[in-house]
Amino acid sequence: MGLVFSHRFCHIRSVFAHTLNGSLIVSYSVTLFIQCIVDAIYPEVGEAMVRLFSKLGVAMAYPEDQTCCGQPAFNSGFRIEAKKAARRFIEIFESAETIVCPSGSCVNMVRNHYPELFKNEPPWQDRAHRVAAKTFEFSEFLVDVLKRKDVGASFDGKVTYHESCHLLRGIGVSRQPRTLIANVKNIEFIEMPDADRCCGFGGAFSVKYADISTAILSDKIQSIEATGADVVVGCDMGCLMNIQGMLSKKGSSVRVMHLAELLAR
Amino acid sequence: MKHIATEDYKTQAKTAVRNRVLQGALAGLQERLGKGTALAYQNLPEGPDLRYKAHDIRMHAIHNLDILLKQLTEKIRQRGGHVFFAESGPAAAAYCLNVARKHDVKLVVKGKSMVTEEIRLNNALINDGIEVYETDLGEYIIQLAGENPSHILAPAIHKTREDIGRLFTEKLNIPYTDDPPTLTQAARKALREKFFAADMGISGCNIACAETGHITVVSNEGNIRMASTLPKIHMVFMGMERIVDSLEDHNILLRMLCRGASAQKLATYVSNIAGPALDDHMDGPEEFHLVILDNGRSKILADKDFREMLCCVRCGACLNVCPVYRKIGGHAYGFAYSGPVGAVVTPLLIGINRARHLCQGEPLCGACRDICPINIDLPRMLLELRWKLANGDSAWQVHRENNLEKMTHQLWSMIIQNRKIYDVTLSAARFLQKLFPRQDKMISRMPPPLNGWTDSRHMKPLAQTPFSKKWKQRQSSKKQ
Amino acid sequence: MNASHQNIFLTKLEAALSDVPGALRNTRFSASDAKNDGDIETLDRIRQRTKKERLALLDRMAAESREINLNVLPVTDVDAAGIRIQQLVKEKQPEQGTEKHVVAWQHSLVKSLNLKNRFKEISVPIYFTEFSNPEEKTDLKERILHAFMGITSADFCIADSATMVLKTHPGQARSVSLAPPIHVAVISLEQILADLTELYALLRKDLTHDSAGLTRCMTFITGPSKTADIEATMVYGVHGPREVYIYVITG
Predict the structure, then answer these.
(1) Interface size between A and B, measured as CB pairs under 8 A
(2) Which residue of B367, B415, B463 is in closest CB contact with A41?
(3) Is the model more confident about B480 or about B364?
(4) Residues B273, B418: one domain?
(5) What percent of chain B has a predicted confidence (pLDDT) above 70?
(6) A208: distance to nearest CA of chain B, Å?
(7) Architecture label for domain C33-249
(8) Which of A151, B283, B291, B423 has its CA 20 to 30 A from that of C88?
């Protein structure tokens, strides 16, 4: 098997070889639920997650049919349409053992809103509950399921952390990402004032009520800049896309980074 | 001063976010009160989980509302008080006017009461030739200025001391000053005269207790004590839902209310009033009237999804943490109730279509639910309201707000149900986005309806190769 | 006519709640004093409190009072209290003009301070709010509204929040603790409770054993009146008193 592969695929070879040679035992098996924003706009976040899981010996499956969990439709009140996405999600993922997603808001949708969507359809609600029970947000999976607080990452630079609303208040995840960041070697972490205040994204809200969204975001940017950090880390690309958008327009050198990207370095 | 201006939400919001004075005032308010309240819950002897108990207490009261109100009424009547059940705002105002006319009332002093703002009671009295004075300092200021309140607890938060100084010079004929203690003294002096001369005092009710049959009103200034002690008649306006069952429940709710409202253990004054004064009492009202108001609340009560909203005690804590309120202030909500509570209650009271911006114009961050002393799930109800707007609802007489949006989502739902179609759509989008101008690899301008984004932000373009494709490439190269 | 408003109103509510299961349709209040085991324990704890424990509560109340601009002042006996109050009356000035008079509750503890004589020494009239005919009542009302100090006792004090609890009784006018810019209260150490829970246990006892119950108006007073309505700047002395003094007789 250690045959000649072209340079393009050498990283895949290394994963494959590691598994085969037994130098890294497969510690877990997960099914990837890649958020639509990550899939289409920030594939590097998904790739970072794959790199990290490979390093940690986590085997991955990726159902290629997946599209969207339905959250944007649900938040705008379009429940009939959101249900279609939800049913599809359940059908695709319910046979998986453990589902991991790099987005707190998507996990919030599955965990807290799927059962509500199907409140008048007990069979679907049961299936929704069962899928929800095995769906985890990325940092939640690493710390609470894989029991890894330190993944051997290192980063030279100043970093601050934005607590996404649905991650924090929807599924109660805050300790986990902070623990993982704290254990990154060489990192200089600076707490943002009002880290847990909304960034103003809110999905369609950011466009439909753009003036308000912009005003809220401006405050968040001010908080970020007050830290002097080079990078703002988060667990939700919706928020980070919003934050990056204003930083870029301002010509700021501050970058956004998903936690997976930070940990996969 | 429009009574209902919910349709102006967007334009008002736009003006508000540019108002530096307002921005500073709102930020200061939230820093002090929002954070103070969270700390106050931590310091509760029972711990912050008392909020869940408060929720149980209030839901229990709502589930037994008819029984509790009956008990309250009987007890008050036993003591010689009067109780009137007002189905609507006009009915409540008419009752008040009847009593006023009967007693030849010329001057009324009022404590702050959201319910009386909701039903425009002041207007009804003034139109009948009765002088009405708001006595809460903030309410007094905006009454003099002819404006609407912008916050439940701090109605004049949007005004600077200089604004108030000029206002008092004009309306109270005092030499100009912008020193808050001096201005407060001026208001005290002016209002003392009114308290002493008033024929009737009007207040709201924060929480009534069925077991004892008393109503409780709180204030820090002492104006409600004045209004309920000196004039011959005291009339209380109570939203029908503002009641708890037992004294034990009252203990908990009173403490939660004060912490939610202003991060205090207790407000300076808590008046627990059971009826008119006795004959051998030195002071206190000779006549006591309680007006219990429906005005649309029974419809909320009948709806299982929205019944929870009746648990609210209007403390204002949600305003003190809401990122939207922080930027747009109270006026943008266009009705008596602003902030997250306004976003849910206003559509339910005045019409969901009419108040559609209120229940759609927030990111659903959930901070309100977490700070509510009664743990009311406001985001859940906002989502329910959005569902009604998207789909229409006959019970609440909601028509579908936006057919184009519905069709867009229907199209979207078809696309996401088939990965191939989804991929084609993404490819088309990747092509189309080349038309948009770029700056530093970011899209700098997008056409309507997406221009709201690019007015203030760049947009990361769709990646050339989505993750799904990269994964497929990886898998197929593994197989080689 | 009113009855029909009520019937229509309450019937509507009952109908709105028709989906609520029977088990949730019950009320907790009842006039039974055996209802609360917790109450018996609480009432015992209050009764069996030692002087040392009571003094600890006083310390707690004093600590609480500092944050809210309230003066909690321990004194050994009624004479000491009377002297301190006389001193206060001497020092303090009225809001406007120079005329000073004081109004006070007709209350045994207040009476025991011998204020009439003490104030006579410094030429300040004191009026007790008890009347036997309508003219007296009207006169007294005027006095209260223009007094520069009001002196009361209290039914209880709550250490946890430095709160005074004042019920309404004949001879104990409500406006004495409200209208004058200075409010002085005199209580005894035994009247201090730990927290609202203890107060409510006593109130429940009152409901069953005292025909007046909570009385027509029971007021909780926590410090002087205040507002932050102008640019969020705290100002003391709005419509209620600007200064509050609680003298606690420790004995």
Answers:
(1) 211
(2) B463
(3) B364
(4) no
(5) 100
(6) 7
(7) 3-Layer(aba) Sandwich (3.40)
(8) B283
